[in-house]
What does this fold into?
Amino acid sequence: MIKLNNKSLYEHPSMWLHCLSCGLDYQVPGNCGRRSCFICRQIQFKRLFRKYIVFLMSRPELRMITLTQPNKGELYRETITDLRHNFSKLLKRKFYVEKISGGLYVIETTNKGQGWHVHIHSIYEGKYISIRRLVNDWSLINNVHCVCDIRTVDNTQSALSYILKDLVKTPQIGGHIEDYDFAFRGVRFISCFGSWYNKIKPEPVKSKCKFCGSDSLMSWFEIRKELTIMEKSDRGTFT
Ligand SMILES: [Zn+2]
Ligand SMILES: [Zn+2]
It folds into this structure.
């Protein structure tokens, strides 16, 4: 459960829940839409880990790759779009189509004072690819020498935590919050490709009341909606 102090509650969008079992109301954080937001990132981490771990644990032959580009002076929305485009170019090459059956990836970005370090972390299901080959192909697509990494996944949970690790801390972007939020607005945190595309559905999870543990919760938004419908139908019977 994300704990909000009064200050963050005041600043962050939130919603009220009502427990139909114990009758108590309490506030939970909503989504503010900012990629840099520490509260939303913690919620995302838990949601994404839960969504992907069961599927990943069921897959054989997982490998993890990191694809970087040289640091950039500025971060634009195009920086992210171009990186995604280049990655999909790589995956469409015959060699990679034969080696990789499916996978997922995240785009991570840091700025530690030496420009923007934008890179991809990906977990894929498939065959061995040599680091030499990967560096060569990725560098050719980007028209510049790029550093890459590839390794076998021995522990799936650690691998998923590793690629989501960026979410559990405040992004290291040296105060460039606006550029970062703008570049990532609306960008999915995890994207799937190949046979994994559209295959992984979230596990249905029912929220539980933080006071009594019951899962009979309703948001005040839903309650108000129901009340309006009831009011309308009541009026209908008298006219
Ligand atoms: Zn309750
Ligand atoms: Zn937020």
Q: What stands out?
A: The mean pLDDT is 90. The radius of gyration is 22 Å. The longest helix spans residues 38-57.
